[in-house]
Design goal:
This protein has 330 residues and is α/β, with parallel strands linked by helices. Helices cover 31% and strands 23% of the residues. The chain contains eleven helices and 14 strands. α1 packs across α8 and α9 packs parallel to α10. The longest helix has 18 residues.
Length: 330
């Protein structure tokens, strides 16, 4: 049975089998996600594990994600820790990963995905349809903001930052003693569920209304390409979930081909239908007044075919005028 302890400096302990050092951000959500992954990988590898906390620029800088460099600011420090051999694997929210791979690193495992949907957390049990005009709804995502404005033009969409508890505290009546200056916030259902905060969800927003970010609800386990730790790579391969990897590969290929950053107003969702991989993507103007939504499918053979599907749908979007609708430069 594998055991885990918290280790801050990334140095290896002496004596006993070499523990798998698992890099993580220090937020409650990151620690919860990472611990779940670490326990499973350690169990499969029959090795103990150690958590290595890494502080990222995204945890320090203030301002909107677009101002501080997009969601990639949460990834860079973890990748540096891997390359400097301060940890052996790093766990990321896959939607935060830049679309281009990091030299020397590989995503060795994509575990089975959680709920892909966005969740509305509103005062008084309100839903997107029942929020009154003028209601203040917070989100830090241009994608969510644009689709909120498209679905409910009368809402006042407010840019916010902070961890899950901080954001929930902005909703009137949800957290005692918190500011409560908003009527609702929109967060990823997967994160709320991993933290056991399902009770805060007043509506799971249908993907017909709000397509998720590419890779939303999925995790990525990254390691060094050259790492030969006995048992670890085999454990990561066994932990990989092929349907999830195919889906997120197609979704992220849309972003790559559109040359869009992780915070662009773009959503994408793929899923298996028998032997076919169906992909849908949306490109929005920031004000939500212009939306382009297209679909495409292809045989679900392998990751290369999934990537081709995403690239092809991105070309369809560009041909239909996506670059005139949204800011697509990374």
């Amino acid at each position: 049975m594998s055991t885990g302890t918290d280790m801050r400096d990334g140095t290896r302990p002496s004596g006993g089998p070499a523990a798998i050092r698992v890099g993580t951000r220090g937020s409650a959500l990151a620690m919860t996600q990472t611990t779940t992954v670490a326990e499973r990988v350690a169990e499969l590898a029959e090795l103990p594990y150690e958590l290595v906390r890494i502080r990222t620029e995204g945890d320090v800088l203030r301002g909107s994600l677009s101002q501080i460099g997009g969601t990639g600011v949460f990834v860079a420090a973890l990748r540096d820790a891997l390359l400097e051999e301060r940890c052996d694997i790093a766990v990321h929210s896959l939607k935060d990963l830049p679309t281009l791979p990091a030299p020397g690193l590989t995503v060795a495992s994509v575990p089975e995905r959680e709920d892909v949907r966005d969740a509305l957390c509103a005062r008084d049990g309100l839903t997107l349809a029942t929020l009154p005009d003028g209601a203040r709804v917070g989100t830090g995502s241009p994608r969510r903001a644009a689709q909120l404005r498209a679905a409910r033009p009368g809402l006042d969409v407010v840019d916010i930052r902070g961890n899950v508890d901080t954001r929930l505290g902005r909703v009137a009546g949800l957290v005692i003693g918190a500011p409560g200056d908003l009527d609702a916030v929109v967060l990823a259902a997967a994160g709320l569920r991993r933290l056991g905060r399902d009770d805060a969800i007043t509506e799971l927003i249908d993907t017909d209304v709000m397509l998720p970010a590419p890779g939303q609800g999925a995790l990525a386990v990254e390691c060094r390409e050259a790492d030969t730790t006995p048992g670890m790579r085999e454990a990561l391969a066994a932990y990989d979930h092929a349907p999830t990897r195919l889906a997120v590969t197609a979704e992220r290929a849309v972003l790559l081909q559109l040359e869009a950053g992780c915070s662009a107003p773009i959503g994408a969702l793929a899923h298996l239908r028998g032997d076919q991989l169906a992909l849908e993507a949306v490109v929005c103007s920031l004000d939500g007044r212009s939306i382009l939504r297209l679909t495409r499918s292809a045989p679900a053979t392998d990751a290369t075919a999934a990537a081709r599907l995403g690239l092809g749908l991105a070309e369809d979007l560009l041909a239909a005028g996506a670059a005139d609708i949204a800011p697509l430069s990374s």
